[in-house]
Amino acid sequence: MSSFKSDFLRTLSERGFIHQISDEQGLDALFAKETVTAYIGFDPTAPSLHAGGLIQIMMLHWLQKTGHRAVSLMGGGTGMVGDPSFKDDARQLMTVETIEANIASIKRVFSNYLTYGEGPTDARMINNADWLRELNYLEFLRDVGRHFSVNRMLSFDSVKTRLDREQSLSFLEFNYMILQAYDFVELAKRYDVRLQMGGSDQWGNIVNGIDLGHRMGTKQLYALTSPLLTTASGAKMGKSVNGAVWLNADMLGPYEFWQYWRNTEDADVERFLKLYTTLPMDEIARLAQEAKGSAINEVKKLLATEITALLHGRAAAEAAAETARKTFEEGGIAADLPTVEVPAAELAGGIGVLAAFAEKTGLVASNGEARRQVKGGGLKVNDATVTDDKAVLSERDLTPEGVIKLSLGKKKHVLLKPV
RNA sequence: GGGGGAGUGUCCCGAGCGGCAAAGGGGGCGGACUGUAAAUCCGCUGGCUAUGCCUUCGUAGGUUCGAGUCCUACCUCCCCCA
Questions:
Q1: CA A394 to CA A356: how far, in whole Å?
Q2: How many Cα atoms sit within 13 Å of A62 on the Cβ side?
Q3: Covered bases, chain B (protein CB within 7 Å)
Q4: Which residues touch A327 (CB under 8 Å, ≥6 apart)?
Q5: What is the dihedral angle through the alpha carbons of A263, A264, A267, A268, rounded to the nearest 10 degrees?
Q6: A176 is annotated as contributing to ligand binding
Q7: pLDDT, mean over chain A
Q8: Which ranges belong to the motif 'KMSKS' region (predicted)?
Q9: Nucleotide B34: closest residue by CA–C1'
Q10: Residue A85 CA to nucleotide B5 C1', Å?
Q11: Residues 390-409 of A with CB under 7 A from strand B
Q12: Cβ of A239 less than 7 A from strand B
């Protein structure tokens, strides 16, 4: 590990957040000397960030913790264009309404990690729509566009994939990197931002901003990127058993969020403790030491609880851990497993198993899939494997707790509750 | 403007002499083994009121008993020439 003098870079470095820095010594000196303002941009492509974005939020978190000023930039303007970096094909264009709604929804998560306000080390939430949407095309071309060389832009890896595959890269998308570069300069002017951070896929875009800053007379700007997140076996981060690992609670409950981290691969445990929890380094080292063989499961639970506590609060995290304990270790029924309510009268009339799994709980996508899962032995009702796809559920199937437990595989459970 | 090529299962990549619900991967899901891990092996991976019916190969027509496959027009993309 390189020996950084500043708290911020040392912390990021020892926790494994750093992939590339534009000028290590220069940036380190800056952080050691003064309060630095740094930002990360978030694109409003969905109503919630997912686990992949967590690493960026954690970087801002440490930035604030070490006494600097964090800026979370919402891409209300750039979202109208769409980032083509390393994408295979063009994104669907989003309407302004969708973008605004997504931003409003995404924002909710940030205050769990950062303290916002007007004070010197309070974080700020800024939307680049503030300046991008008012740009005058001709002025922009003359002031900013003239500093960009298309020859150079074409050489970036981020667009090469698209070009190599002979897929179209629209002029609209091609402009994304110019807008992002301009953002950096604008933030430098307005808020004295000196550093932009992001995933390693953003390197080209960030460096463009630094160059533009040179030409437009800002102070020296810096870039810092985090490694691309994959699990030890190479899968992309942020995909869970049933889709993306959303951060917003209304899209993914604390229990399911906890489960995602509980299922971390052995080889990732220590890395994730460093990246996603705020546990001190010496404690992480101690935990990693302990985690030999199946004892690692205890560490995984702690990992899951710590990460969930940061996002959803300590109480919700512990409730999730308890639900998991009851469900997996006692084989019992925990009241706060995901629950679907059905009218008591409907249950009295009988509900086909296939319909219960497909339509009621959505554990499987269709009756056909439910049928296939029955064939493969993947569905269970109250822990008994379903063998007959014509079986019908009724009040007789209610457990003493007054629910019916439906399971897909060993890990996904939903309770059916008559009301 | 002229010439040449491409678009396949709504996750992706990709084969496809006129009989095709469409090869093969990857990914995903389930099963076995385990530790709610990884690796490995096996099964599944259009929909439905289901020995049948419906919808799928860029879009719309046409030829044919029958079209992903042949013809026409259009859309989108790539390459070459102007």
A1: 11
A2: 27
A3: 12-13, 27-32, 34-39, 43-50, 76-79
A4: A333, A334, A337, A413
A5: -170
A6: yes
A7: 89
A8: 236-240
A9: A294
A10: 27
A11: 408-409
A12: yes
pLDDT digits 0-9 by tens, A224-260: 999 877 666 656 665 554 567 889 988 888 998 999 9
Please state the φ and ψ torsions of residue A111, each to the nearest 5 degrees: -70, -10
pTM: 0.90
Structure token digits, residue A228: 């691309």
Tokens of A330: 């006692």
Instruction: Confirm if A56 and A22 have CB atoms less than 8 A apart.
Output: no
Among A284, A278, A287, A271, CA closest to A237? A271
Answer whether any strand B atom is within 7 A of the Cβ of A118: no
Q: A62-71 pLDDT, tens per residue?
A: 999 999 999 9
Whether ipTM tops 0.90, in short, is: no
Angle, alpha carbons A28-A212-A6 (nearest 5°): 10
Beta bridge mates, A416: A340, A404
Q: Is the CB of A412 under 7 A from strand B?
A: yes
Tokens at residue A271, please?
Answer: 């890395």
pLDDT of A150 over the 50 cut: yes
How distant, in Å, are the alpha carbons of A257, A313, A374, A416 from that of A337?
12, 18, 22, 10
Structure token pair of residue A45: 């492509």
Query: Residue A187: enclosing H or E segment and its boundaries?
Result: helix A176-191
User: Please, what's the b/e burial string for A282-304 (b: 16 or more CB within 10 A of its CB; e: otherwise)?
Assistant: eebeebbeebeeeebeebbbbbb
The residue that minimises its CA distance to C1' of B6 is A166
Chain A 148-177 residues in 7 Å CB range of strand B: 166-169
